[in-house]
Specification:
Layout (H helix, E strand, L loop, with lengths): L5 E5 L52 H14 L4 E5 L6 H14 L3 E6 L13 H12 L1 H13 L8 H14 L8 E5 L7 H9 L1
Parallel strand pairs: 3-4
Antiparallel strand pairs: 1-2
Helix pairs in contact: 3-4, 3-5, 4-5
Keywords: Repeat
Protein name: Nephrocystin 3-like N-terminal domain-containing protein
Pfam families: NPHP3_N
């Protein structure tokens, strides 16, 4: 049966690619850690406890499409965004989970946010950037102190616009990393965000 899923590439400030060397994901927050000030959606990551039974692609299915995504994420394409789109029920989320699982197990997944219509904290974009930042502090240790510094310097950052949050909590810390590395960020079901303007803003970040 022909798939009704299609994809496109675009440019953005985030480049997916290869992480050079192991990533240490040990992560403990002290009571006074500035990162505790960042609210985040616990159900956002692909592997949150509420999603533990959500399926991934069966073996030897979606092979060509998955390989296309892997080629992109492995740095074989200079464009920064892989945009997967299609009708509801065509397996986009299953593909996203499959890709997320692959790079998580390879310690190459920076963060993931799976939107869900009517899903409370994952049904809107209010905690989108702060959730990404909290995950980045865990998965990319070199960014952790820079994110902490941003929270201290901008004590009201959780109440700022999404654009400002992205600038200070994500782009700023990553621009300060000494070692050039690339990471994969996966956003699923963006169309299920409850505010169309927020959707447009996230696409533009």
């Amino acid at each position: 049966m022909a798939s009704s899923i299609s994809f496109a590439y675009a440019n953005s400030g985030f480049q997916a690619g290869i992480i050079h060397g192991p990533v240490n994901t040990t992560f403990h927050l002290l009571p006074d850690d500035p990162l505790n000030r960042l609210p985040y959606a616990r159900d956002a990551p692909f592997n949150s406890i509420t999603k533990q039974y959500d399926p991934t692609c069966l073996h030897d299915t979606r092979v060509d499409l998955l390989q296309e995504i892997y080629n992109w994420a492995d740095g074989r394409d200079e464009r920064c965004i892989f945009w997967l789109n299609g009708l509801a029920g065509t397996g986009k989320s299953t593909i996203a989970r499959t890709v997320a699982r692959r790079y998580y197990e390879q310690q190459r997944l920076a963060a993931s946010f799976f939107f869900s219509k009517g899903g409370g904290e994952v049904g809107h974009a209010g905690l989108f950037v702060t959730s990404i930042a909290v995950q980045l502090a865990q998965t990319v240790p070199a960014s952790r102190q820079h994110i902490r510094d941003a929270v201290v310097e901008h004590s009201d950052i959780a109440n700022r616009s999404l654009r400002d949050q992205w600038h200070y909590l994500v782009l700023g810390p990553f621009s300060k990393l000494r070692e050039p590395s690339s990471y994969t960020l996966i956003i699923d079901a963006l169309e299920e965000c409850d505010n169309q303007i927020d959707i447009q803003l996230i696409v533009q970040l």
